[in-house]
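[Solved] Which block belongs to which protein?

Original post:
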Amino acid sequence: MSRVYNFSAGPAMLPEEVLKEAADEMLDYRGCGMSVMEMSHRSKEFDDIIKEAEADLRDLMQIPDNYKVLFLQGGASQQFAAIPMNLMKNRKAGYIVTGQWAKKAFAEAKIYGEAIELASSADKTFSYIPDCSDLDIPEDLDYVYICENNTIYGTKFKTLPNTKGHTLVADVSSCFLSEPVDVSKYGLIYGGVQKNIGPAGVVIVIIREDLITDDVLPGTPTMLKYKTQADADSLYNTPPCYGIYICGKVFKWIKKMGGLSAMKEHNEKKAKILYDFLDQSKLFKGTVRKEDRSLMNVPFVTGDKDLDAKICVRGKGGRLRESEGTPHRGRHAGFHLQRDAHRRRGEARGVHERFRGKEQQSVSLTDTEREKSCFNIIA
């Protein structure tokens, strides 16, 4: 068997240990005679699976008792609508727009009420995090929304916004479980699991209990009400059972690896390899203001779309895999490598060596060719 380096933004690589364990249990989960894919979500076996997954997640993140953990369907994008439906009591919310996903959430919120752009980094192609220490926040805002780590543009909120007492809502899809987090600073945290935790199809919502009410916008579908899901312990309808099962195994794997503090240290070491390389490179350059650089996503450019295509081809030949052709920086199709939180440091170094080799192969380019290059990798 020959496995590739799959640096896709999501679905991303899973720990081989988890995949092998799931493979061993595929036909007969712990002697029950069936696969998790086949069992009822009302069964004792699955009840144990989902409760154990929640307990391990609570332990990893030190989630306070006054927060509910919901395992839901629809991915993070469905939450763009569910959040205003449930939380926009005054029909007014503030959004800090720092990338594509915050931009989409902002646009969706406008359907349900007045969405106000409190700050944005669009003026410089989302290459930095705006100063959010003293925002002009109307008193009647229901919440302040951020996308904490930007998959596409490689920025990260190192300091949370000063919401001046308003509820903070955060999409953490691409930094989920990458470092310790103080859950009590948020009213609601959510993320699709496919970028850092498990297979596509599951979104985890962690929400403070006082925000879970029947006071939702008219027309909110029953299953999109957080109270519906919370009252049913995420079992109002058939949940994505197998995805939750895999998430539970990854939670245990992270605990075995040392927890979130160990994950942060691991990620810092791997990100440093990439950033150190980019900072001394004569061909590639990073696109993000240094103080706002993400540990999870590392974009860089050359400036020539033809060169981009050549490097993509060489990367595939070298057993690298990327997400296909999502346009991010104006005229070019982005080539994405999301540095998976679960890869070993040696593997990250191996990728670094591959790109160093590509740079050495490209040094014969003229200065004009370099100036035209525009290559974006998220690693």
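(Second protein starts here: sequence line, then its structure tokens.)
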Amino acid sequence: MSKVAIVGIGMHPFGRHTISGMEQGAQAVREACRDAGITWNDLQFAVGGSHSAGNPDRMVSMLGLTGLQFVNVANGCATGGTALGTAYNMITAGIYDLGIAIGYDKHDRGAFASDEPVHPVDGGLDWYGGSGMAINPQFFAIKINRYMQKHNISNQSLARVAAKATRNGAMNPMAWRKKAFSEDEILQSSMLAYPLTQYMFCSPGEGGVALILCRADQAHKYTSKPIFLKSAVMRSRRFGSFEVKASSLPKEENVGPTVDAAKAAFEQAGLGPNDIDLAQLQDTESGAEIMHMAENGFCEDGEQEHMLACGETEINGRFPVNTDGGCIANGEPIGASGLRQVYENVLQLRGDAGRRQVAGDPKVAYTHVYGSPGISGVTILSR
């Protein structure tokens, strides 16, 4: 089985822009090719994902009609992670030597409202969305409120996560939200769905990311700083896990897909949670980051309260989390978010993250992305 390296990265800034989502993706591709010292013509395959900005294979009309294999993928907010995992598998299987994973999107305000019946009944009426259990603040609030009650997590911890995100985003030239908010400002912002306030949520956004992958034994052709992809894993939900769009919750609750994805990724990489120097974790809202800290194996349920109070997840802390500001600061262009996380980890492991650089010469980094209706993807990178 061939090992895999990331040898080129490119990103179009996140936010709101006048150009199309596909053009943002194409610009990220061009930047990634420059970073690896190659051209589009050199690539043997591409894997791309977008939720709202057109099928990625149409991008060849912007980049070049070379006849390369182009695979489109879609997995909710885990689309970017799926693109990367598919590209990883193509190289490890020995099918190709050099390829690219692409993710981009362009969402309007309010784009994550449920636009189609999830569980329709007579006449197509959607009792599920009408009760608040869709991709919106109510569902996320219900889930984190339940978790907080079970594990003694405070509202202050929610604010600490969001404040950290805005501070990190203020140091990230690619981030959308570049204004840092205090914990008090976050707690006093508009209550959207208890216990989550306005500044604890991410927003639908725009942006594009591209990553160039190759066989590890050929990485020296393209870069002096290859980053090795130790694992790339996707897992879906089990019966009994409480996920978005689930129509019921059994009495005996099961673990979520993140637990399974994390376990498989660590096994594939031959590593454990204590080997990780920093992590990017899905933070659709600040409660998601708290829950995912435990689900990915970095603490026990309830330990987040102490970790956050002590600043352990800050850039200068024991275990930095979401060093680029996460979804809260960057926004959520569905096709691009999972690749944004990997882009940030490559910068960190190269030592090129500027003001956000984690001290101590980090060597191993972790990403986790979660998509509706219960898909989790995990990658582990190393120098």
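Accepted answer:
You had them paired correctly. Confirming on the second one: The two ends are 19 Å apart (CA to CA).
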